[in-house]
Corrinoid adenosyltransferase (Sulfitobacter delicatus), 190 residues
Amino acid sequence: MVVLNKIYTRTGDKGTTALGNGERVAKHDARVEAYGTSDELNCFVGVARLEATSATDEALARIQNDLFDLGADLCRPDMAADKDAEYPPLRVTQEQVDRLEREIDVMNSELEPLRSFILPGGRALAAHLHVCRTVARRAERLAVLLSEQTEINAATVTYLNRLSDWFFVAARMANNSGKEDVLWVPGANR
């Protein structure tokens, strides 16, 4: 359980922050960038929830919780030490990825195939979900960059990859099952 009695600690005033294992790193460290962007994504998901129907809201609530799991995973380096840790670190699992895939498949089964790229927009919820999609892609890129520098849980990258796909399909569903998608017309304004 987390207990936060005091919000400011002054420990980061010189540009460093503590990771999940207590190690201090620069606030611009690749690991901090990766889990910080997943936190940013979580905030955008919270905004999307303001427009969501109950079923979509429930799915987005699960995703928000998963994103906290993902941030906890990314902020904890040294996976080799997991087995010796007093408390096993929280790691993203394949089951979380599998759940996203199942949900994507269900949503996608109700949509007509795309014959054009779509522009982000349409209904308000769809627009918010497209923002979530792009921030998820940025978080994924940052997690991949981190994985090139040090070992991380590969499921974090897979989860973010699938999550951006989830947001894309959910945005289409929010646009009246794709009927209100805004189609890209190549060269339309030449």
About this structure: The chain has one domain: 16-180. The mean pLDDT is 93. The domain at 16-180 is CATH 1.20.1200.10 (Hypothetical Protein Ta1238; Chain: A;). The radius of gyration is 18 Å.
